[in-house]
Design goal:
This protein is an all-beta fold. Helices cover 0% and strands 51% of the residues. It is built from no helices and 11 strands. The strands form 2 sheets. Strands 2, 4, 5, 6, 9, 10 and 11 form a 7-stranded mixed β-sheet that branches.
Length: 114
Amino acid sequence: QVQLVESGGGLVQPGGSLRLSCAASGFAFNSYWMHWVRQAPGKGLEWVSIISHEGDTTNYSDAVKGRFTVSRDKAKNTLALQMNSLKPEDTAVYYCANWGAGYWGQGTQVTVSS
């Protein structure tokens, strides 16, 4: 069955870095554009980033542009989000998603706090 499993979240101080990973299985991962989406406490879903199926096109929300970098490994069926210069407002549960097909992971918690 379809699985998207995120990992790499945790507690980090402001200005720090984290690298999130998402392992995909059960669908043709390399055929789909993939997203990172987050949900802060008490708020709705916020789109973060997108990467093309070939990995050669990316885009970011204004909130994270210049600080986050999305990538994918086609051989390993994995998606990554490198997050640098983290801010307290980046605190959220982060999800990887094949939004078009409706596949979502369970999410990984990122907390940015001193």
